[in-house]
Design a protein that fits this description.
Blueprint lengths: L3 E4 L2 H9 L6 E4 L5 H12 L4 E5 L1 E3 L6 E3 L9 H8 L8 E7 L6 E7 L14 E4 L2 E4 L3 H11 L15 H4 L2 H7 L8 H7 L3 E2 L2 E2 L1 H7 L13 E5 L16 E3 L3 H17 L2 E3 L3 E3 L4 H14 L8 E5 L3 E7 L20 H7 L13 H11 L6 E4 L3 E7 L6 H11 L2 E2 L1 H8 L4 H13 L3 E4 L4 E4 L17
Parallel strand pairs: 1-6, 2-3, 12-16
Antiparallel strand pairs: 3-7, 4-5, 6-7, 8-9, 10-11, 12-13, 14-15, 16-17, 17-19, 18-19, 20-22, 21-22
């Protein structure tokens, strides 16, 4: 087992003690029982992950923390053995030993990452983290909710009580889709083959994809609501510009209609700068984020997707937590489809909304960067994923380079491209040349990097007003 050891400074210890126990952090005495330790591992692994500090005791009433570390690393071996005994967290944790600078004792920091599997304790119980508590998952309903949240089971496979196969095979949208099926096949047999029917009832996936009005059988969980607020602040009923728009129909049609309506509303907004200017967001960003919300939402939750349009941002809220091992930090690289059947079949439609499966959010982020806008923010709440698309300009490439050089003496072309998002080496050179011509940097011959000049210290925010704070 690999681990890292670091001796903390007194300042770092004070910062560590300032961290409060919450949804992502827990402090425990080194005398905690193995059962109690595995309970916290289970809770973090079944939620969003978190960090456990063993060897720091916190008083219950005063919340005062005391460093009571292990005398040596070997003294913590029993806790490592517990970690190794839980197969569900294999490859989903990291170990650090934090050494006190004067006491020379160790705190064991265990970082637990979110996993696809359900994490059990050593006595085969299940917990989940809520705030600063580790709560038991001790009923069939709670276990079912956890399985849905993790994507172990998918609501897309549930039969819809009021559905009939004629809802699908006689629908206009199925007729359009069936022209893509090669070779031609009997509709009923195709629906059965795709596992879109259970006990003569169409599944949630089948209704959403191929019923002309899935909202009839799946009310309050299969529509998109669009709100326009005339404010840059919080959503308030008094600030609604008009009645909310409800977008219905099958998933395929919903995506394109919601994108079009959102785009129309945004284009009607005018922002006062030197003159009234149109607000602009990349259509690719709106398309990919709305597509992502429709395809990956949790359809077991009776809440519609909400698109909220403000004067300075767009918010897209999709019901359900991030599935599997996906977190807000790895969402651009990790893949875990909550509704794999919907994702697979909608990709077979003409002009599929998810042409580049798995790359949608990356496309959305890249499109914002190309317009020199800040990339979207992704937040996870208790029962939803919120994407915030702000209309905020990035600092110019020159300002980003200056901000980097405030803390560094030199910079290379490759680093400049990473800082600014510029792809081309020659374009990056042009940015350096502009700063060179103004006397702020100079090329170090023979080493192929740039360094600050004496004039660099004379830079002001008047010259570069968008310098990052």
């Amino acid at each position: 087992m690999q681990y890292h050891t670091k001796t903390l400074s007194e300042k770092e210890i004070l910062k560590l003690f300032d961290i409060e126990e919450d949804h992502f952090n827990d402090y425990k005495s080194k005398d905690i029982s193995g059962k109690g330790f595995s309970k916290i591992i289970s809770a973090f692994g079944n939620a969003s992950g978190g960090e456990i500090y063993l060897g720091i005791r916190e008083e219950k009433d005063t919340k005062i923390k005391h460093w009571e570390g292990f005398p040596d690393i070997e003294s913590s071996n029993n806790f490592l053995q517990i970690l190794n005994s839980l197969p569900q967290v294999e490859d989903f944790y990291d170990i650090d030993y934090l050494k006190h600078p004067t006491l020379n004792t160790y705190v064991l920091k265990v970082s637990i990452f979110k996993t696809q599997a359900i994490v059990y304790t050593t006595d085969k119980k299940v917990f989940i983290r809520k705030g600063a508590q580790s709560l038991p998952v001790d009923t069939p309903e709670k276990m079912r909710r956890l399985e849905l949240d993790k994507g172990i089971t998918s609501y897309e496979n549930e039969p819809v009580g009021d559905s009939q196969i004629d809802d699908v095979i006689a629908s206009d949208i199925y007729k359009i889709f069936s022209e893509r099926i090669i070779p031609e096949v009997d509709p009923t047999k195709w629906i059965q083959k795709q596992r879109l029917i259970v006990n003569d009832k169409i599944t949630v996936a089948g209704e959403l994809l191929f019923a002309d009005e899935p909202q009839v059988c799946l009310p309050k969980r299969s529509s998109i609501k669009i709100f326009r607020y005339k404010t840059s602040g919080v959503a308030d009923r008094d600030m609604l510009a008009e009645q909310p728009i409800t977008v219905e129909g099958c998933a395929y049609q919903q995506i394109y209609e919601a994108v079009a309506k959102t785009k129309d509303i945004i284009e009607s907004i005018r922002k006062l700068g030197e003159r009234f200017e149109a607000i602009e967001y990349p259509e690719e960003t709106l398309h990919e984020i709305i597509t992502n919300a429709v395809l990956h939402r949790d359809y077991s939750i009776t809440t519609d997707i909400q698109i909220r349009i403000f004067d300075n941002r767009v918010e897209v809220e999709s019901p359900g937590k991030l599935p599997g091992h996906v977190t807000v930090n790895n969402i651009l690289s990790a893949q875990s489809a909550r509704n794999p059947k919907i994702v697979r079949l909608i990709n077979k439609f003409p002009n599929a909304p998810n042409k580049d499966v798995g790359e949608g959010l990356n496309t959305a982020f890249d499109a914002m960067t190309k317009l020199r806008l800040k990339v979207p923010q992704i937040q996870e709440t208790d029962n939803a994923v919120l994407v915030i698309i702000k209309h905020e300009k990035l600092a110019s490439p020159e300002e980003l380079i200056i901000a980097y050089l405030v803390d560094h003496d030199t910079i290379k072309n490759s680093i400049g491209r990473a800082v600014t998002g510029i792809k081309s080496e020659n374009t990056m050179k042009t940015v350096f040349y502009k700063l060179r011509d103004r006397g702020f940097i100079q090329l170090v011959r023979g080493y192929n990097y740039w360094e600050k000049t004496d004039n660099f210290g004379q830079l002001t925010t008047e010259q570069f007003p968008n310098l990052p704070k």
